[in-house]
Structure of DUF512 domain-containing protein:
Amino acid sequence: YETFQEDVLPILNQIENLNVSLLPIVNNFYGTSVTVTGLLTGTDIITQLASENLGDAVWMSHRILNDEGTLTLDNLTLDDISNAIDCPLQLSNDSFLKLLNNLTHA
């Protein structure tokens, strides 16, 4: 988190018409010591992002969904989350380079 926040975000934000923020989601469902992306619930995501100024899109790891890629641990869909936070939710795989490509070509 710190490396991305301090080293990568300033570089990304030099790209014209791109403004990237990093908003960590705290796992309130299983406890704040749990930092595994795959154990986040849709409710935690919604609760923590609903009051944020999210811009044009939110990018998250595909690991927030089950193996079928359809539901979070609390049975919410991507559409449920997107509608609740009033912002499109995009998923990225684990490749940092692919995420950067998605961000710069969104």
